[in-house]
Structure formats: C-alpha cells, structure tokens
Design a protein that fits this description.
Helix 1 runs antiparallel to helix 2. The chain folds into 3 domains: 78 residues; 63 residues, SH3 type barrels, CATH 2.30.30; 64 residues, SH3 type barrels, CATH 2.30.30.140. Strands 1, 2, 3, 4, 5, 6, 7, 8, 9 and 10 form a 10-stranded antiparallel β-sheet that branches. The protein has 269 residues and is of the alpha+beta class. It is built from 4 helices and 10 strands; from the N terminus they run H-H-H-H-E-E-E-E-E-E-E-E-E-E.
Length: 269
C-alpha cells in the first residue's frame, strides 16, 4: 500500500467532510425558509417576493450536494477495492487445463455474488463501462507527473479488478503511430458524467480545482472553475487551465460538463 494511495483516500475523506458541512448549512437555510412560510404563508403572494425561488434554489443545492456525496463515496470504495489484496500472500500460480479454468471462472462468479452490497455495487458499474470513454491515468505511481487521457474501456476483469482500455488517439512518431492499450486498476479510472443526464452531475463551484479535457485534445489537465454556464441542451464549464498563460493572461476556456471530473487527490502536474 503506497503513500500516494493513502493520501488520496484521506483527501477524498476530507472532501466528504466538506460536503457534509455544506449540506448542514443548506439544511439550516431550508428549515429557516420552512418556518418563515409556515408562519406567514401569505408572503408568497406579495409582488416581488422570492421565497419560493429561494426555496427551489436551496433544494437544488441539497440535491447536488447529495449526488456529490455519492460520487465521493464511490471513489473511496473504488480506491479501497484497488488496495485490497486479491488473494493470499505468497500464493503460487500454476498451469491449469480447460476444465480448471472453467471452474476458476465459476468460483470467481460465485465469490462476486457473495461480496457485500457495497463492494458488489462498485464492480457492477465497472462492468457496465464497456465501450464507454473514461478518464484514465496511464502513468505509474512513481512517475514524476500524472498523465490523464480519454480512453475507451474494452473490458473490466472482475477477478483482478483491472480495466483493459484503448487510447484511440494515435501516438507520436517517437512512441509509435498505433493506438495503445493499457491494463489499469480501478484507482486510475474516473468515469465521465453522463452526457444525457446533466441534472445528475455534481456541480463544482467557482474556485474549485478540477480535472478537465483541454479543448481540441484528448488529454486532461488541472483547471480552476470560473463558472457553470447553464444551457437548454447542455451545461458548459468556464475554466482556467493551469500553465495556460497567453500574453500574461489566463484565458478562460469552455469545456462541456461531461468532460470535467473531480480533481484526484495527490494529482501531480
């Protein structure tokens, strides 16, 4: 178990604490609005009163925070799953024939069915990511910098809890022009928000640091949220990417919400 892995878990735990504090503050405001409306319900009929609009805004905030809480719980579970040993220490490998392989697969399926609901709830969505694009860290834990790319999930191996992914963008001439495949643990994969479900996406407030796809590329970099631009068909984030200075200024770039994810804890750039 490496120090960066523990650091990431602790950072996500701290983020959960922050979300819960925000939830408490929103609930306090909601309760205040409830008491106000119960005491003076006629206030909503006055011209210019914004009580109902304010209450709707608070409910929306509470909903977004709850969904963010679920997202970070899922991330923590994925990180813990990736750190748990998959077999007894020192277990030796042996050659197996076709029947033994079949029995091994059956045993694996049986083991999965006996997992706790929380563990099983993490493995099942991973299997459903086949064919989907996700954010993947392709560099190892000992690398000087973290490199994140948009990749396509080919397969999720439940026995090893690893993703087989394809970087569909051709590499540089020095690296070879073909597409590259990687086998990566769950801790290096972040699913993107669903394009057709903008209402379920966690809202990152202005000033929050995120990981986002740089426009015109398939690479993800650290950025700071300027604002969330609500539209009829989709939502876009206005971001300032780190190290993106032009003529002494930081340009603000628009990125679709489904290409923005929470910044992984301990990110190195």
């Amino acid at each position: 178990m490496s120090s960066p892995d523990i650091t990431a878990i602790l950072e996500n735990s701290r983020e959960l604490d922050r979300i819960r504090k925000d939830q408490e503050e929103v609930l306090v405001e909601i309760n205040k609005m409830h008491k106000k409306l119960q005491a003076t319900p006629e206030v909503v009929e006055k011209p210019g009163d914004t009580s109902l609009a304010r209450l709707k805004h608070l409910y929306t905030q509470a909903k977004d925070l709850s969904e963010s809480e679920v997202t970070f719980y899922s991330a923590l579970l994925s990180q813990l799953d990736a750190l748990l040993p998959s077999g007894p220490p020192g277990q030796q490998r042996k050659r197996t024939d076709g029947n033994e392989q079949k029995r091994k697969r059956m045993k694996t399926d049986s083991d999965i069915s006996r997992l706790s609901p929380s563990m099983r709830s993490q493995l099942e969505p991973c299997g459903n990511l086949k064919g989907e694009q996700v954010a993947a860290r392709v560099t190892g834990d000992n690398s000087e910098k973290d490199e994140w790319f948009v990749v396509k999930v080919i397969h999720f191996h439940k026995d090893t809890k690893e993703f087989e992914v394809l970087d569909e963008e051709p590499g540089d001439e020095e690296e070879g022009s073909g597409q590259r495949k990687y086998h990566l643990p769950m801790s290096r994969i972040i699913p993107f928000p669903k394009r057709n479900e903008p209402s379920s996406v966690p809202v990152f407030p202005p000033g929050r640091q995120v990981l986002a796809v740089y426009p015109g590329t398939t690479a993800l970099y650290k950025a700071t949220v300027v604002s969330l631009q609500r539209k009829r068909k989709t939502d876009d984030y206005l971001l300032e990417f780190d190290d993106d200075e032009e003529d002494g200024k930081m340009p603000q770039r628009t990125v679709p919400f489904h290409r923005v994810v929470a910044l992984p804890e301990g990110h190195r750039q």
